[in-house]
TrEMBL record:
Bilayer topology: Multi-pass membrane protein
Membrane-spanning residues: 6-24, 36-54, 60-80, 101-120, 132-154, 163-185, 191-211, 223-242
Pfam families (alphabetical): Zip
Descriptive protein name: ZIP family metal transporter
UniProt similarity note: Belongs to the ZIP transporter (TC 2.A.5) family.
Lineage top rank: taxon: Bacteria
Species of provenance: Oceanobacillus chungangensis
Gene Ontology molecular function: zinc ion transmembrane transporter activity
PANTHER family the record matches: ZINC TRANSPORTER ZIP11, ZINC/IRON TRANSPORTER
Length: 243
């Protein structure tokens, strides 16, 4: 295990903590502000899937593998949602129950496992360019993902530092799955495109099922739509800038 490969995995996972720390700058967020932030985050995550994970999966395999991976990612989160108590992000109306924070964290942690495997196995593949691309794509989308988790915890009444700590723990899970990807790279090498597509599918599920409905919950559809598009463009611009 080279130092460079280990560093790539560590940086990619640590990006979750970087995103989570942004919540320190938020003292009091209105419903409209929260909707805009969630929509902006959703735009970045969709762009990371469409512009990073999905092209990488196709490059390694074919459209059939991509479709299978995306559908499996969507199916796994659908099953998880049906088996566990409902974890939708709700506004704080008095007639709605408070979401189960632990179950939301479990869902986000499961989502990080295939991402870590993808980073680990791609960094020991024969294509050095692939390792850099996958590390960058997943690491960059981990920033808004870490912010999303910490923002959700903060808006549910948790203090900022505990929200950052729990968000960081989801990134640690990705780090250890990345180590597994390195140690068993030969076994997982054929799984990498499926894992990339799985991560994309699960991310798209979270965005469409949770973030978009939530960002439109208070009549802020127009502002949230523009925030989503700006987030999408931001990710595309950053990806091109760093390449």
């Amino acid at each position: 295990m080279s130092l460079l490969v280990l560093t790539n995995i560590l940086i990619s996972s640590f990006c979750t903590s970087i995103g989570a720390m942004v919540v320190l700058m938020i003292k009091d967020v209105s419903h409209k502000g929260r909707d805009i932030l969630l929509a902006y985050t959703a735009g970045i995550m969709v762009s990371a899937s469409a512009y990073g994970l999905i092209p990488s999966a196709i490059k390694l395999s074919n459209i059939t593998v991509l479709v299978i991976g995306i559908l499996i990612g969507t199916l796994v989160l659908t099953i998880l949602e049906s088996l566990l108590p409902h974890t939708d992000l709700h506004h704080s109306e008095n007639n709605l129950p408070k979401p189960n924070i632990m179950l939301f964290l479990i869902a986000m942690s499961i989502h990080n496992i295939p991402e870590g495997l993808s980073v680990g196995t791609s960094n020991i593949s024969s294509s050095q360019e692939l390792g850099a691309v996958v590390t960058f794509a997943i690491g960059l989308q981990n920033i808004p993902e870490g912010f999303l988790v910490s923002l959700f915890l903060f808006t549910q009444g948790m203090n900022q530092f505990k929200a950052i700590l729990l968000s960081t723990m989801t990134g640690i899970i990705e780090f250890f799955s990345g180590i597994i990807g390195i140690l068993f790279g030969q076994l997982f090498e054929g799984v990498v495109p499926y894992a990339l597509a799985f991560a994309a599918g699960s991310m798209l599920f979270v965005v469409y099922k949770e973030l978009i409905p939530e960002s439109h919950g208070d009549g802020n559809e127009r502002a949230s739509t523009f925030a989503f598009i700006i987030g999408f463009i931001t990710m595309v611009w950053l990806t091109n800038w760093f390449r």
